[in-house]
């Protein structure tokens, strides 16, 4: 039986409608009920507490963060990947050197550095693929699916918060967390403020891990949040404030 | 036809040559993939037919919704909720990538690069 042109077209139309309909029947997406809610997440790091406990804490924050997120330990400094790390005051705040006598007591004090989740992030502005972008809650995200490894963001970030994968990181991950992906050669990575834990209602891992409770996590836009109380009572500084990137990481120095 | 005998033999040889793959696979059924389903589960998040036809679209939606839209819950057609995660949700049931995903993907020579970053259960096991 020969099929008529008319029938063939009809069949084709039906198939198309069928495909469109079945592709559309997938489910809907929502936010988990238990997810933490905030409009601008921030960290306040108590430098005084951090220094007092530094001898005994074993940098638990770094250890937990890096093992949870499959961050490789690459011995070659040029290829190193870091999400959160320790730096001396004079390296973290070189511009404060001019005030040497004022800041003398801070010298050699350890400062924990990480992505500042800036309110006005230059890294986001320069990314040609929008692989890095700012979420409505202030988290500066990395979408590794879209990163093309151009490293514009690294050039733009004034805080050196981003690392590039020059080599396959997998051989340098001693113990893997099978619930979190690793990255691959050719993408840029950084701290994402534990967005995956926030979705499950948990606070960032470094905050939870610190034995001295030196890191406080909270929502700057929520006046009742503990972080706002602390920022009102204490003296806080932020890195390179003169650049107007408005970092969301505050260092409590007094 | 001039030189008819030679031409016919040549044509036959040519046909045989181009159908080599067919002859080599003659009677071999195991070439057709039989993905191994999770043993203790009877249903996936959506119907079998839907998953067969659209798992790639669904996974693509999942990654966009979770990473870009901050929506981490998928409400399936039957109303059941699932956490949007390849490693925490899909691979918990489909705990053997080689016997499930790869069996078809190899057959149709499709090699998605998910596994450059996402960690298959058997890879994680070898790691420890
Ligand atoms: S610290 Fe650097 S990487 Fe992080 S948001 Fe600011 S500019 Fe971007
Ligand atoms: S907030 Fe999360 S990702 Fe960022 S440094 Fe702390 S543990 Fe690591």
Automatic annotation (TrEMBL), chain A:
It comes from the Bacteria. The keyword Oxidoreductase does not apply. InterPro entries: 4Fe4S_Fe-S-bd, 4Fe4S_Fe_S_CS, DsrO-like, ET_IronSulfur_Cluster-Binding, TAT_signal. Transmembrane segments: none annotated. Residues 138-167 form the 4Fe-4S ferredoxin-type domain. Keywords: 4Fe-4S, Iron, Iron-sulfur, Metal-binding, Signal. Pfam families: Fer4_11. The keyword 4Fe-4S applies. Residues 1-23 form the signal peptide. One of its GO terms (molecular function) is metal ion binding. This is 4Fe-4S ferredoxin. It comes from Thermodesulfobacterium commune DSM 2178.
TrEMBL record, chain B:
The chain crosses the membrane at residues 7-24. The keyword Transmembrane helix applies. Keywords: Membrane, Transmembrane, Transmembrane helix. This is Cytochrome C. It comes from Thermodesulfobacterium commune DSM 2178.
